[in-house]
Design brief:
about 300 residues, mainly alpha, rod-shaped, binds protoporphyrin IX containing FE
């Protein structure tokens, strides 16, 4: 918020204006009751402003607060304390949910009432002009300070939303990173499992059926290679790289190939074997399509 010195400078509000306000006060302060009544009648004309004055107490408060403001306008020095009082009024209006255009409209009404009174009471044309210029400056300063609270309130809300959004994004990022770490640990454990499987298959090849053992080991080796690929991709992903979908299809393909290796000597019935081959074909087609899409995307980037 600007300081009162800046505001006075920008509105070209001088000590002469301050003096003029005193003179205006001599003419207009005796009309305080009448002005308060007219202001209240004006607000009662519109349902959206009348709604604030349903009780006798609120009507009384309205007249009191208006008269306080009205007296302040003509008698107060336009200093920092005055600025604070106007800012407080602005905040009260924001707090009660009053739209700023009601304040603008009622200030316009007041301006016209006061202008008429000045024109009616001061007959010297030059003097009237000077007094009216001062009056407009004073009312403009009042309006500008009171309505700036609406702008500040909007900014405050924006910052609150912005902060909440930032906090949520940070939380989601941390959660995602944590989940990715968990995935990497899972993959590491699985890779150890596959390593054990490979060891078991090699042992089978040595102590049992060599042919079956070698084929099984080949399948497990394929799986191990795939696990290494997956781990590698996950580590790249943790460092900010992309996670290609292709890698998961590759993993399924390798698992199928291993199953076919094992099935070649486990199943006597050709049907499961044919089904496995069919599955492998479908996976191959999916792999082909995914790999094509990914390479096209990479070319575009
Ligand atoms: C030129 C325009 C206006 C001026 C100068 C003005 C002035 C004031 C002042 C000085 C206060 C007291 C703030 C405080 O507690 O420190 C106030 C409060 C209030 N104003 Fe205004 N006002 C204006 C427009 C309006 C309008 C258009 C409404 C519409 C209903 C309104 C409704 C109220 C209400 C309900 C309060 C709270 C009264 C309470 O304390 O119970 N004001 N206003």
């Amino acid at each position: 918020m600007e300081s009162i010195i800046d505001i006075r400078d920008q509105f070209e509000f001088t000590e002469e204006d301050q003096e003029n306000l005193k003179k205006l006060g001599e003419l207009l302060l005796p009309l305080s009751d009448q002005m308060a009544e007219e202001f209240y009648d004006f607000l009662m004309q519109f349902p959206k402003t009348a709604v604030y004055f349903k009780t006798k107490e609120s009507v009384k408060r309205r007249k009191e607060t208006f008269q306080f403001w009205y007296k302040d306008l003509f008698t107060s020095q336009f200093d920092n304390r005055y600025l604070l009082r106007l800012q407080k009024t602005g905040k009260v209006h924001v707090k009660i949910g009053l739209d700023s255009y009601h304040v603008n409209a009622s200030m316009s009404f007041l301006r016209e009432q006061l202008r008429r009174q000045v024109a009616a009471q001061i007959k010297d044309g030059v003097c009237t002009e000077d007094m009216l210029i001062t009056l407009h400056k004073a009312l403009d300063i009042n309006l500008s300070i009171m309505t700036s609270s609406y702008q500040e309130e909007k900014l405050k809300k924006y910052f609150v939303y912005h902060k909440a959004e930032k906090w949520l994004v940070q939380l989601a990022e941390r959660l995602l990173h944590g989940l990715n770490l968990f995935l990497a640990i899972g993959l590491l454990v699985l890779a150890l499992g596959v390593l054990t499987l490979l060891g078991q298959d090699i042992y089978q090849a040595i102590v049992g059926n060599l042919e079956h053992g070698v084929i099984r080991s080949l399948g497990s080796l394929l799986l191990l290679w795939m696990m290494i690929e997956l781990l590698n991709t996950e580590i790249q992903h943790l460092r900010g790289g992309k996670l290609p979908v292709r890698i998961f299809v590759e993993l399924a393909l390798v698992a199928f190939i291993r199953k076919i290796f094992v099935a070649s000597f486990e199943y006597k019935d050709p049907i499961p074997f044919v089904l496995l081959l069919g599955g492998l074909l479908v996976l191959g087609i999916i792999y082909f399509m995914v790999a094509r899409i990914e390479s096209q995307r990479a070319d575009r980037e």
